[in-house]
């Protein structure tokens, strides 16, 4: 009979025998030939590490960085170990560790989700929930674990569940419902299938739409407000970008109205003293409207064109219409403004004969060139302006009532500067900056001067201010412009205006004449207007301005 010690050499796997005090007495050759360690030691010293399982029926051991699993059997006073190298166990162990890590990761992902997540098995038994479920349902998340959704619904804890529907229909199901706090929630259940195509789990996502909805409402509100601000800003920027100062409430409302009517074709009549900005407003209406994309803005200064030329200027003439005329003929201002806007400035200066012709064009949209036999169609928007009192003129019989009503469809009255003093400081700064930029200077106004100019009557309105600022910036040598730098006509003290010495009468008359013409030249922009204001003829004004070297600013 072969002894136990000898027989283990026949085992095709690692084996060894110990005494009952665990000291190795024999290693089989299968084992000893694959290791360097020498036997006859206590197993604790022989192996690098050992673990006993199942009350010592199994032992796992590490030796020379190799992993073994031994079956341990008591035979008489000895123990017989029969083993196998188990590299796969190590791999398994590694996999378990990896799976545990993944599981933890998944748990924290599920928990950090802002949506509620609810997982059941294929019988509807709750396996897992997350923190968000507590926020959305108001019930601790642990309460659900192990309970079936049917039971939770019967108890009224769940109002509705998609889980049974998913199990029945074997596909993703969504419902929108109000939860117990009456908050709108979107519930989406999705099946998780195994490799055989059977449902293993149902994962339900619960999204609180009420917060989303209120965020959406808030977002819409913010968007609306930001659109409004943008429009306001555009408007404000729109004015200043175009070199228009609009500061007072009256002017803001007036320009807002201009913006609103810009796209309509109705005739506009702009009233206001000289220099208030009638031309500026007319151009703004044109630029803000669709006609600026299709046609021109043509300005006609009705007061500056000699009456005998007015008709051919406005309506054009045919070749050979009169001596000195262009052979080919010439289009008038109305034709040039086709599809655009014609601005009839100083419309009150139109002679009655021309008023009739203008009325015809407005009524029929047709005009006839001087010397022509046929009429032409024109598509023109009319903006008219005047500083005259047209109603008075109607009474006097110098302006046709029917034309007035044709023009006065959308009336604008621009108040004089002294009636909208809120615009004054902004305009002063605007013209100061403009002149400084134009001449590369950097002058400033003293506060005292600003106060003075704020109170000034500004008979010549914005034009007077624009001229004064340019004059002050150019004629003042110091960098600070103050009251002393104002021209004599602005000084309040009577002294300057008075002649204090005895001088010949004709000299005194000349002095007075020079002063009054230069004052008018500040306020008006044409010699016709100055002549009218001073109640004399235009050629007289031209002559005198030359004599006194006065120029219109
Ligand atoms: N709001 C404003 N912002 C900036 N500049 C302005 C403004 N209003 C008027 N101006 C300037 O003042 C001057 C006179 O304006 P505008 O010619 O428009 O006046 P008007 O009322 O048409 O004068 P008139 O009756 O003599 O024809 C122009 O140089 C114009 O650029």
From TrEMBL:
List, for all copies, the residue spans of the domain called Sigma-54 factor interaction.
244-474
Q: Which UniProt keywords apply?
A: Aromatic hydrocarbons catabolism, ATP-binding, Coiled coil, Nucleotide-binding
In what residue span(s) does the PAS domain sit? 102-148
InterPro entries, per the entry: AAA+_ATPase (IPR003593), AAA_lid_NorR (IPR058031), Homeodomain-like_sf (IPR009057), HTH_TyrR (IPR030828), P-loop_NTPase (IPR027417), PAS (IPR000014), PAS-assoc_C (IPR000700), PAS-like_dom_sf (IPR035965)
Is Nucleotide-binding among the key words of this record? yes
Q: A Pfam family in this protein?
A: AAA_lid_14
Where is the PAC domain positioned along the sequence? 169-221
What molecular functions are annotated in GO for this chain? ATP binding; DNA binding
Q: What's the superkingdom here?
A: Bacteria
Coiled-coil zones: 212-239
Q: Which GO terms describe its biological process?
A: regulation of DNA-templated transcription
Q: Would you tell me the protein name for this molecule?
A: HTH-type transcriptional regulatory protein TyrR
């Amino acid at each position: 009979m072969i002894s136990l010690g000898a027989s283990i050499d026949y085992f095709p796997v690692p084996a060894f025998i110990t005494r009952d005090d665990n000291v190795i007495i024999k290693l089989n050759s299968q084992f000893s030939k694959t290791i360097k360690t020498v036997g006859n030691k206590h197993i604790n010293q022989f192996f690098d590490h050992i673990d006993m399982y199942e009350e010592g029926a199994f032992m796992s051991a590490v030796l020379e960085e190799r992993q073994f699993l031994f079956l341990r059997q008591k035979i008489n006073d000895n123990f017989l170990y029969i083993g196998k190298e188990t590299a796969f166990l190590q791999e398994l162990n590694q996999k378990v560790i990896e799976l545990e890590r993944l599981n933890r990761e998944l748990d924290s992902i599920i928990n950090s989700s802002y949506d509620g997540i609810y997982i059941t098995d294929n019988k509807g038994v709750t396996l897992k929930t997350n923190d968000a479920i507590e926020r959305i349902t108001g019930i601790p998340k642990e309460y659900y674990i192990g309970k079936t959704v049917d039971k939770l619904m019967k108890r009224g804890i769940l109002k509705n569940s998609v889980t049974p529907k998913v199990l029945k229909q074997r596909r993703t199901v969504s419902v929108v419902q109000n939860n117990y706090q009456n908050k709108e929630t979107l519930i989406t259940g999705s099946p998780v299938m195994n490799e055989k195509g059977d449902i293993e789990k149902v994962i339900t996502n619960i999204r609180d739409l009420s917060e989303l909805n209120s965020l959406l409402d808030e977002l819409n509100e913010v968007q609306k407000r930001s659109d409004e601000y943008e429009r306001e800003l555009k408007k404000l920027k729109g004015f200043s970008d175009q070199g228009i100062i609009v500061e007072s409430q009256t002017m803001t409302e007036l320009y807002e109205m201009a913006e609103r009517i810009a796209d309509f074709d109705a005739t506009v009549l702009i009233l206001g003293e000289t220099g208030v900005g009638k031309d500026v407003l007319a151009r703004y209406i044109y630029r803000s409207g669709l006609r600026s994309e299709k046609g021109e803005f043509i300005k006609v200064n009705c007061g500056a064109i000699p009456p005998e030329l007015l008709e051919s200027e406005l309506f054009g003439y045919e070749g050979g219409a009169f001596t000195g005329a262009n052979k080919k003929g010439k289009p008038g201002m109305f034709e040039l403004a086709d599809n655009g806007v014609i601005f009839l400035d100083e419309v009150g200066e139109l002679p009655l004969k021309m008023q009739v012709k203008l009325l015809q064009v407005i009524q029929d949209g047709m005009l006839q060139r001087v010397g022509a036999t046929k009429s032409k169609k024109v598509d023109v928007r009319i903006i008219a302006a005047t500083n005259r009192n047209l109603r008075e003129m109607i009474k006097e019989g110098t302006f046709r009532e029917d034309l007035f009503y044709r023009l006065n469809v959308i009336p604008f009255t621009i108040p004089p500067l002294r009636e909208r003093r809120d615009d004054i400081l902004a305009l002063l700064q605007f013209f100061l900056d403009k002149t400084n930029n134009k001449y590369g200077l950097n002058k400033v106004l003293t506060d005292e001067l600003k106060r003075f100019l704020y109170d000034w009557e500004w008979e010549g309105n914005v034009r007077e201010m624009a001229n004064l600022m340019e004059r002050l910036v150019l004629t003042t040598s110091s960098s600070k412009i103050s009251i002393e730098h104002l021209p004599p006509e602005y000084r309040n003290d009577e002294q300057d205006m008075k002649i204090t010495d005895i001088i010949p009468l004709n000299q005194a008359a000349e002095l007075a004449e020079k002063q009054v013409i230069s004052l008018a030249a500040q306020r008006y922009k044409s010699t016709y207007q100055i002549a009218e204001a001073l109640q004399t003829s235009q050629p007289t004004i031209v002559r005198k301005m030359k004599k006194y070297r006065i120029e219109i600013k």
